[in-house]
Write a structure and sequence with these properties.
Blueprint lengths: L16 H20 L3 E2 L5 E3 L10 H4 L3 E4 L2 E5 L4 H10 L8 E10 L11 E10 L5 H16 L7 E7 H9 L10 H8 L2 H4 L1 H9 L9 H11 L4 H7 L6 H15 L5 E3 L13 E7 L8 E5 L3 H4 L7 E7 H10 L12 E5 L5 H13 L4 E3 L6 H10 L4 E5 L1 H6 L1 E6 L5 E5 L10
Parallel strand pairs: 1-5, 7-8, 12-13, 12-14
Antiparallel strand pairs: 2-4, 3-4, 5-6, 6-11, 7-9, 9-10, 10-11, 14-15, 15-16
Amino acid sequence: MSKQNLKPPRGTRDLFPEDQRFREWLFGHFREVAARFGFEEVDAPIVEHAELFMRKAGEEIVDQLYHFELHGRHLALRPEMTPSIARMVMARAGGLRMPLRWFTVTQNWRYERMTRGRKREHYQWNMDIYGEPGVTAEAELIAAITSLVDAVGLERDHVKIRINSRSLLEASLRAGVLKDRPEAFEPLCVVIDKIDKVGAETVTDMLVDPAGAVGLDAASARDVVAMLEVKNLEDAVAAAPSDSTAGSDLLRLWSLLAAYGVDDRVVFDASVVRGLAYYAGIVFEAFDTRGALRAICGGGRYDRLTEALGGPSIPAAGFGFGDVVIAELLSDMGKLPELAREVDDVVFAFEEAQRPAAIEVATRLRAAGHRVELVLGTPKLKRVISDADKDGVATLWLLGPDEVERGVVMRRRLETGEQSEVALAGFDPEPRA
């Protein structure tokens, strides 16, 4: 018999107690921030119809699907949550009060090349607003991201958010190099989204590749790459066609972010386009200002997603915020929380004869809401006290032959060492604070 491989599949993780404590701490912040912004939590199956994700704009995500056929159905593990949310909105579009605010914390799967901060299985916090066509939605989402950054203990200068408008870029390109080929815009965005990973020269080569979906001439490709280097919002707006409203939307967004008090935490960056074809307006990405990690989160406007899925067009904006990169950043910045095991009380019977009384004490403490460890064996008292100290336990309850014979339990406050006897008859512990 071959030796069992004890490691999880490549790109996935085992979550031991200390890992699970961090995950629940982080998820707690996700949920708390979403609640403060008035969002409701929803969920969807982890297995979806594969066609929900199989768009045809050359997106990497299509090739990264974990998908399979079973009983004549083509299914996939969800690689992201946005299409599932869109499907849910479409299913009840006539009965939903708009604008709606939904959030999710879900497990997602992509078979992709792994780098630091990128795994094949990850958890993601999504916040989505449906039914609001104005940039007030994007402003609210960006404010939520900054609130999360603050909540987990990072400094304001640790994370900033790059903002661009695909509508602004699209208007400029369709008035110029894509004037006769508007259909090339979405695959062009898929290519230029790689600029941070592969560099401007490689992106230029990909844009002129005759076998690719864009096929620009060399001069046009260089013009496109030059457009991506613009870092000044006013310059980008001035260069756009006069009939485009995308520039005024960006300027309006900046004024709203100033009202939130976060305009110092955002920057204009014409190279941000997001690699998913359904984005069609303002897009944004949060990033580590040291430049050591990949994007922390990303999102934007995707008004045409429900239409692409066969339904009516519904204004929508949202973001996805993964758990992997933020954990790396917290570690790098020395901001990982110290999360101890949470046990309030330990109940210890010196001998098996006292176990029924110990069970009664533990049961009554638990009924009062206490988190209680009932020692299952009969180790040395020194070991029990040492373990309880390490776990930050507040109270140790001791039952030996003498205590049980006299109908009491010994209570020891570990922080002060104070000991007192409590009668077993009518034992009624105070509810946990």
